[in-house]
Amino acid sequence: MPEIRQNLITREWVIIATERAKRPEEFAQKNRVKKEIPSYVPNCPFCPGNEDKTPGETYRMGGVGKDWKIRVVPNKFAALSREGDCKRIMEGIKRSINGKGIHEVLVETPLHNMTTALLPVEQIRTIVEMYKNRFLAAYQDECVEHVVVFKNHGEGAGTSLEHPHSQLIATPVVPSQVRERMEEAIRYFDDTGECVFCRTLKEELGDGDRIVWEGQSFVAFIPYAALSAFHTWIFPKRHNASFGSITREEMDDLAITLKTVMAKFYYGLDNPDFNYVIRSLSLEENDEECCHWYITIVPRVSKAAGFELGSGMFINTALPEESAKFLRETKVPF
Amino acid sequence: MPEIRQNLITREWVIIATERAKRPEEFAQKNRVKKEIPSYVPNCPFCPGNEDKTPGETYRMGGVGKDWKIRVVPNKFAALSREGDCKRIMEGIKRSINGKGIHEVLVETPLHNMTTALLPVEQIRTIVEMYKNRFLAAYQDECVEHVVVFKNHGEGAGTSLEHPHSQLIATPVVPSQVRERMEEAIRYFDDTGECVFCRTLKEELGDGDRIVWEGQSFVAFIPYAALSAFHTWIFPKRHNASFGSITREEMDDLAITLKTVMAKFYYGLDNPDFNYVIRSLSLEENDEECCHWYITIVPRVSKAAGFELGSGMFINTALPEESAKFLRETKVPF
Q1: Does any CB of chain B come closer than 8 Å to the CB of residue A296?
Q2: What ipTM goes with this model?
């Protein structure tokens, strides 16, 4: 019998389609055309030596010239502009605001052919620190209302550039989705006196069925009502509404957790395309007792279609418990 | 300067990314690998003569045996089951309901290699009538709370079966997205005394900039805050909350409108993959003064990535006014 599960945090209903469910290993990207990617590509704007091909660097770690560990630059084809003001227009049904904001590219490594699963933990630690730095810096801009840090890996996940990079987009509006989820979290808090995220983490750890990996400060699990196959969440154990509050020790553990989870995808599902995103409030809102920052990872091993589009509901052809067991048992070589 | 537009109906914010915008013709699927598709495939379960390969037919128009015009059958790999009851489970964070519901496949034509753009208007008229019949029939089931009729065309739109077909999924819950939009529509009505859809249609017709096609009873346009490139809406001119109330004359005009719009995509954008979906309340709710049924069409010519996933906001690299002008001017040969 199929099951329709509701995600208590997002309020989304998901059909867990047992009749059409696939085994975890069937989601592996075995038949995909693979190409050899070199570690250096002369005309790649993110490869070392091409620093002049990107707009003015805003952040770097490492040495001078082409001797960097990571670099941050404005997106050359930015979705939002740093110039101008936040003017609003309201004319009947037309409501708009000038597209002022920040759009940065976060180059994760000098090596063109790397991926999170294969990077050394120290490099991922550096990346996490870069995320924190840029996240906090973006909120300094008085026009900025919300910041999203995310990564697209592979064409199926919407990226055209091969060189490993993440992105940061800071918007002059709070996305409706963020507001709605916050309202739901407040409502849960009002009803129970608890943070719905802390509650979820506690129950997930108690059940154990959907846990992928437990680190010192972070837990990776497949949500009970995962929207799509292998949709994974990484929750910090410590309650905080803002990623900006992450400590040194937590950054160490997040690097290990990210590498472990991404390696489980890499080896278990054969290097699938994926997106991940940090869902967080600003540091100013850190004390918000009903919200909790976290990371969502979506490997692109299934496709949303008309039903999802027309209802906002999802059909998941993987059983969360089976997917989690599969990942939990996937050995990673480090 | 990029612009962030809000869709008054969905409350979604969209970044209209002028800096990275492409010209309308750049969205054409010219470089896609094309394959010749035959009009009949012996082992296709939806081709005539293979009627016994599908579970028991629930509806047909045309003659007997393999002499049908359209057929409706239960989905062999149904996401929801017709059997069982709608039992709810509530255990801490785990909220679920048995996956009882309906999942039908609506075979649109005996010809394996057809597409909406190329079908005769009369056949599309028959398809629309089939939609109405199945839509109304699904709501007869007392477990059913919401019905979605949709079509996935092409692999990029999430379908694995080539033979032209639509689907119907009837769920025992109202999707949260449907509820939220309804609440917003009620709020707009409370504030203004008007249906937000009627208001939108009126302003769109007044502006004219985003109109793709105007028929007798339907108007196709690209919404002011279109989520993605060439995202198109077809609104009935007459206010009704339910597709189930569509009249004979309206069905005639919807067939013409659907064919025209799909042909504009087919010729202008080189047969892109697409999804379309009927967004509607039940016939019982037809008199709801603040809701209005409509059709959404999403050609799959751009990709959502991590930012969209993490914020619910979209980045659209096509200017709605330019896309609409392009489609308006795309000649279709009939």
Answers
A1: yes
A2: 0.92
In a domain, B133, yes or no: yes
Record: contact A1-B81, CB cut-off 8 A: yes
Query: What does pLDDT average to in each consecutive run of 10 residues of chain B (334 residues)?
Result: 94 90 89 84 96 93 95 94 90 94 97 96 98 98 96 90 96 93 94 96 97 98 96 97 98 98 96 96 95 96 89 94 98 89
Of the candidates A245, A228, A230, A225, the residue with the CA atom closest to the CA atom of residue A294: A245
CB B111 within 8 A of CB B130: no
B237-248: pLDDT as tens digits: 999 999 999 999
Terminal CA-CA length for chain A: 40
Residue B117 belongs to some domain of the structure? yes
Query: Using an 8 Å Cβ cutoff, are B106 and B127 in contact?
Result: yes
Q: Which residues contact A187 (CB under 8 A, 6 or more apart)?
A: none
Q: Which residue carries 């990484």 as its tokens?
A: A234
A165: number of CA atoms within 13 Å, CB side?
23
User: Nearest-CA distance from A248 to chain B in Å?
Assistant: 25
Q: Is B188 helix (H, G, I), strand (E, B) or coil?
A: helix
User: Residue B75 in contact with residue B167, Cβ under 8 Å?
Assistant: yes
Please indicate if any CB of chain B lies within 8 Å of the CB of A37.
Answer: no
**Cβ-proximal residues to B280 (8 Å cutoff; 6+ apart), any chain:** B135, B147, B241, B242, B243, B244, B293, B294
Q: Is B312 exposed, middle or buried (0-12, 13-18, 19+ CB in 10 A)?
A: middle
Q: Do B19 and A159 touch (CB under 8 A)?
A: no
- The Cα-based distances of A91 to A88, A228, B224 in angstroms read 10, 39, 12
Q: What is the DSSP string of A222-272?
A: --TT-SSTT-EEEEESS--S-GGG--HHHHHHHHHHHHHHHHHHHHHTTS-
- Which pair of tokens denotes residue A136? 């906090």
Q: Which residues of B touch A178 (CB under 8 A)?
A: 311-312
Q: What is the C-alpha to C-alpha distance for residues A146 and A43, in angstroms, rounded to an integer?
A: 34
Chain A CB contacts of B159 below 8 Å:
305
Domain extent, residue A106, equals 3-329
pLDDT value at A30 more than 90: no
Sheet architecture: strand order including B211-214 = B59-62, B68-74, B102-107, B165-171, B146-153, B274-279, B294-299, B232-236, B218-221, B211-214
Is there a contact between A131 and A121 (Cβ–Cβ < 8 Å)? no
Pairwise CA distance, residues B54 & B47, whole Å: 10
Residue B292 annotated in active site? no
- Give residue for tokens 């967004």: B279
Q: Count of domains in chain A?
A: 1
Q: Is residue B334 part of a domain?
A: no
Please choose, from the candidates A237, A241, A259, A260, the residue with its C-alpha nearest in 3D space to the C-alpha of residue A249: A237
In a domain, B67, yes or no: yes
CATH code of the domain in which A40 resides: 3.30.428.10
pLDDT in tens, B3-56: 999 999 998 999 999 878 889 999 998 877 777 899 999 999 999 999 999 989
Q: At what angle do helices B176-192 and B196-207 cross, to 10 degrees?
A: 80
pTM summary value: 0.95
* Per-residue model confidence as pLDDT tens digits over A107-122: 999 999 999 999 999 9
Specify the DSSP class assigned to residue A106: E
Q: CB–CB of B13/B5 below 8 Å?
A: yes
Radius of gyration of the CA atoms of chain A, in A: 20
